[in-house]
Specification:
Helices cover 26% and strands 24% of the residues. The protein has 178 residues and is α/β, with parallel strands linked by helices.
Length: 178
């Protein structure tokens, strides 16, 4: 059963990249396998492989993250995602993004990110916040507040503007989820 689920996630990730193959897809394949693995030996092997990618490319994404199908890592270097973050389906995450935990205050916790979200270069998303579906987060934005669906977010502090089909043209190769 789990083998079929892993393959579904891997195929959805591969579909997002079109015909291109490479290091990022290898990383995603090991990330998915480590997340669903229940064999101790294979879990250690997958985590060892992920560690190699983390050290070489700065991809700090733990297998404990709940990440939906169709993850796309554009310019996949120096991306940090806390292990307690929840990410929906068909999300794009770009270079230098930090999705992290806030340790104190009223937003103590980790973000929950909806489906079809595009996160631009060097953006930071922190705290126990909810990012809705179809949200575009502009490059170099600092997001520490809830963002409703169908919005564009930019700046520091974040400015939220409503826009229908906010990610149209940004989220590509989204087919039927298997």
């Amino acid at each position: 059963m789990k083998h079929r689920i892993v393959n579904t996630f891997i195929q959805a990730d591969m579909r997002r990249y079109g015909h291109r193959r490479g290091v990022v897809l290898d990383f995603l394949k090991y990330l998915r396998k480590a997340h669903f693995c229940n064999n101790r030996f294979w879990m250690l092997y997958y985590k060892w492989r992920l560690r190699r990618y983390r050290l070489k490319y700065g991809l700090e994404i733990m297998p404990e993250c709940e990440i939906g199908k169709g993850l796309y890592l554009g310019h996949a270097f120096n991306i940090t995602i806390n292990k307690d973050v929840i990410i929906g389906e068909n999300c794009n995450i770009h270079k230098g993004v930090v999705i992290g935990k806030e340790n104190r205050g009223k937003r103590k916790g980790c973000p929950t990110i909806g489906n079809n979200v595009w996160i631009g270069i060097n953006s930071a998303i922190v705290g126990d916040i909810v990012i809705g579906d179809d949200v575009l987060i502009a490059p170099c934005s600092f997001v520490n507040c809830d963002v409703p669906s169908h919005s564009v977010v930019f700046g520091n502090p974040c400015v939220i503007k409503h826009r229908d089909n906010a990610t149209e043209g940004y989220i590509n190769h989204v087919g039927d989820n298997l």
